[in-house]
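Can't paste images in this forum, so I'm doing it all in text. The chain is below; anyone willing to post the predicted structure tokens underneath?
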Amino acid sequence: MKGQTFIIMAIIIIVLMVMLKSGLNLSKILENKRYMESGFERIEFQSIRSEMIKTMQICYSQWNISTCLDEFFRFSKQSLKARAIDLNGYLVKSTYSYPETTSRLNVSVFNGLGSEMDTLNLTLGTSTQTFKSISDSSAIETSFSVSTNTNYTLTVFYNTSSENKTEAVTIPVVSGKGKFITFFDLRMVSSRGEQRDKFTETVNLP
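Text version of the structure:
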């Protein structure tokens, strides 16, 4: 990520020098600089998104995937913070291994919203679990009983001091197949704008 930063800064400097030689006025230069920086941030956001997916693929055979994702989120958040860019959001990670008739669905929610989750409700079927006061950059873990060959909907509700959100995550439980399923809600915010994406990725467990 540091290498990308140096490349971006070098390009900005070169373009600014060309603009100065072309005789553009200062306001036009600043406007173009802001536009370019916004474009670079979109590229950087997509890079972080891709690295999140790669982290799942790399970690599943060697380390705990959930812990890897949490640590990568924290690292990315700290790296961007040094450049006055906020990376916020949350991760909903669910996993089950080789169910035959019934299984335990393990669920972990990582809070990276930048503020405390006052309340977090997780609902699967008729079962609801409630958690209180989940601090920023921390995670909770729980589990549910599930049957095989069923598509479940995990409903996630949270509230903070500034927002209330509900999200539905589809979890297909298939007999004889283990899966690690992660829902991502990522937001990158700076003075130049906001990048945001919601997506779900699945890793088949060996």
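Strands lie at 86-96, 102-112, 117-124, 127-134, 138-147, 150-159, 164-173, 178-190, 193-205. The domain at 2-205 is CATH 2.60.40.10 (Immunoglobulin-like).
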